[in-house]
Backbone:
């Protein structure tokens, strides 16, 4: 099961047996080598991604993008410029849209992350309105736009056209679909407001 | 990225100690939006052996009034600064500058300390894999001087080095116009004195010195400020020219003027001649235009950037008029 270079296998420093995962090794040491407890390595992080708790060891040079996309296999976030200029890799960190290519994974301990997968799984009306208004052409930048729009609607449920333009001003689309984004976000906002009204003003 | 070691500092003392131990081979990381880009492209001849994360030091992101000063912690994110009620109300030019920096996503990461300490953006200097070993990297010549210099200095090169790369900060000119000071782990100095032009350096900070915050003296009554930025796009881009002005009025007459341009010279540049031209006079279309002409009187553009002189003149005039435009 373990491939060479797989970081999920851990060797016990006392009896050299292999355990899968850090937790398993920890339990093994507590149970079989009484009284010894491994300290948490400095590169161990715990974070909440789309509501799921993750605990893993990361290398200092991994970006949050690398962790989410290459290690955890959530391929929704896209890498384009890798220099913080395009917005394709946007994720929501503690409620704010940030560029995952410009964040070190090792500095994300205790953070709450939401990716486009989480937005879709929650059945957010943005997905439907993006499809309906075809706010994409090649589609590569779309997840970044959707995630940024989701963060906008979270803090501003009824944004004006100007506010949408401002919020999306860090996302680039080389196909030039910009006008459609405003239409799509406005409609998603209306849908959300209507849902809220129908449920009697309760959240 | 190439591997490096990483420390989460828990206190300023610990961060300084680690930096001291590495002696210039370590780098401080806050927002990281400038540093990581430089590391990914292997821009510099040397690569940091370790990064010291100061975001884990508590209390460095506070904004608040303190004995005649507005204190801004170095880790205050630009987005937080731009939306802070007290900053928006009393220091609107600073809020505007923070809000015009980069893009919304980058402002959610980038800090005020990093905006002051950021490296230059000259495209020769930034060439991947240290393609151009230029003066600013301790190399033999400035490639921009005879090359494509459309975004470079219009006031000549730095005296010692001959480097014509401009300083790209949007917040620095406002802080200078506000007569702000920076606090570091060692000392307090005027924001103007923070900047220097030396190989691999844009600030006077020692390798084991960390910028901890900025403090702005509460402006005297009757002071009005403005910040204007000219860039190719409204979002994301670095300034081609930006300008901050702070005017203190006394019964309609300009008592004191502080004007600072940036992205036009190797460091932010006070327009002293324009300030003198304005002092003691009424602010109107004519005096603003005269002060603006004074501001660029000593400009010496390079082959491709004469247009920046015109932009700088217009920005100074508009910034001055924006100070007098409202109220009273």
Residues:
């Amino acid at each position: 099961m373990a491939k060479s270079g797989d970081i999920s296998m851990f060797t016990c420093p006392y009896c050299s047996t292999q355990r899968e995962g850090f937790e398993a090794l920890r339990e093994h040491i507590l149970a079989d080598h009484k009284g010894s407890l491994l300290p948490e390595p400095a590169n161990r992080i715990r974070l909440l991604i789309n509501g799921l708790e993750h605990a893993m060891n990361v290398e200092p040079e991994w970006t949050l993008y690398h962790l989410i996309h290459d290690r955890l296999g959530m391929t929704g976030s896209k890498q384009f410029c890798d220099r913080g200029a395009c917005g394709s890799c946007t994720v929501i960190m503690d409620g704010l849209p940030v560029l995952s290519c410009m964040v070190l994974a090792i500095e994300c301990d205790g953070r709450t992350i939401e990716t486009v997968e989480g937005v879709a799984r929650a059945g957010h009306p943005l997905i439907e309105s993006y499809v309906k208004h075809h706010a994409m052409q090649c589609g590569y930048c779309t997840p970044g736009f959707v995630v940024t729009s989701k963060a906008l609607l979270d803090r501003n449920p009824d944004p004006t056209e100007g506010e949408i333009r401002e919020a999306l001003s860090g996302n680039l689309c080389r196909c030039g679909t910009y006008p459609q984004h405003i239409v799509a976000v406005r409609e998603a906002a209306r849908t959300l407001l209507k849902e809220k009204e129908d449920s009697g003003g309760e959240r | 990225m190439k591997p490096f070691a990483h420390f989460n500092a828990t206190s300023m003392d610990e961060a300084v100690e680690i930096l001291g131990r590495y002696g210039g081979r370590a780098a401080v990381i806050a927002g990281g939006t400038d540093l990581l880009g430089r590391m990914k492209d292997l821009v510099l001849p040397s690569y940091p052996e370790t990064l010291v994360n100061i975001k884990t030091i508590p209390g460095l992101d506070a904004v608040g009034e303190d004995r005649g000063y507005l204190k801004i912690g170095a880790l205050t994110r630009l987005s937080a600064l731009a939306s802070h009620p007290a900053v928006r109300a009393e220091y609107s030019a600073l809020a505007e500058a923070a809000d015009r920096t980069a893009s919304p996503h980058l402002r959610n990461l980038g800090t005020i300390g990093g905006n002051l300490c950021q490296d230059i953006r000259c495209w020769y200097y930034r060439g991947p894999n240290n393609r151009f070993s230029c003066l600013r990297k301790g190399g033999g010549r400035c490639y921009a001087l005879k090359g494509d210099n459309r975004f470079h200095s219009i006031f000549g090169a730095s005296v010692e080095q001959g480097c014509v790369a401009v300083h790209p900060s949007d917040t620095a000119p406002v802080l200078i116009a506000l007569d702000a000071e920076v606090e570091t782990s060692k000392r307090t100095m005027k924001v103007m004195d923070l900047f220097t032009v030396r190989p691999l350096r844009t600030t006077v900070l020692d390798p084991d010195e960390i910028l901890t915050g900025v403090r702005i003296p509460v402006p005297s009554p009757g002071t009005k400020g403005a910040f204007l930025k000219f860039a190719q796009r409204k979002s994301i881009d670095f300034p081609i020219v930006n300008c901050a002005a702070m005017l203190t009025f006394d019964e309609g007459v300009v008592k004191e003027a502080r004007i600072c341009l940036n992205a036009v010279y190797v460091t932010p540049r006070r327009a002293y001649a324009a300030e003198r031209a304005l002092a003691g006079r009424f602010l109107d279309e004519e005096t603003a235009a005269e002060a603006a002409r004074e501001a660029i009187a000593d400009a010496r553009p390079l082959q491709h950037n004469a247009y920046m002189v015109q932009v700088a003149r217009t920005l100074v005039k508009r910034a001055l008029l924006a100070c007098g435009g409202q109220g009273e």
